[in-house]
Amino acid sequence: MSDSANPNALPRSVAGDLSDEAAMRLALQQAELAYEAGEVPVGAVVLDEGGRVIGLGYNRSITDHDPSSHAEIVALRQAAAALKNYRLPGASLFVTLEPCAMCMGAMLHARLCRVVYGAADPKTGACGSVLSVHESTQLNHRTVVSGGVLADECGDMLRRFFRERRAKAKGAGQPH
Questions:
Q1: By the number of CB atoms within 10 A of the CB, which of 25, 32, 91, 139 ranks highest?
Q2: What does the pLDDT look like over 43-52, one tens digit per residue?
């Protein structure tokens, strides 16, 4: 469906009006790419107001040597480039893990209308688990946030990744 030479290429035939579950499945496909690259398996998809995919991304912080290369930031950059605008009003972002404060800040600056995540993040989640950035009344933009879409599948991939990492570290005699 996407250009095999570029794993972040936009799917050519993705039509509008994707359901939340279908959009999250696209984000899970991105998370799988992160997993295969040895990155924390988080994936994101940005849909325009017509429901068409305009941005895809997966965690690339290790690969890019960039602490800001979270899945959401990668997808936002691609969406902004596609629309030739840093503002994305009417757009929705789907991500497999609850966004952190950095990513929520970027999403608010992009003026997204909606953010949907899969698994909650009890350590750094900024949509209710640790912080509720989107609910700050001091900020000049609001976005609707909802979570739990395919939460089990999203969480299972993360748990599998970290379980395998711990097993490798233990097998290598490294502290865990």
A1: 91
A2: 999 999 999 9
Q: Which of 72, 98, 153, 164 is catalytic?
A: 72
Which one, of 91, 1, 84, 89, lies nearest residue 52 by Cα? Answer: 91
State pLDDT tens for residues 52-92: 999 999 999 999 999 999 999 999 999 999 999 999 999 99
Residue 104 reports pLDDT greater than 50: yes
Check if 72 is active-site: yes
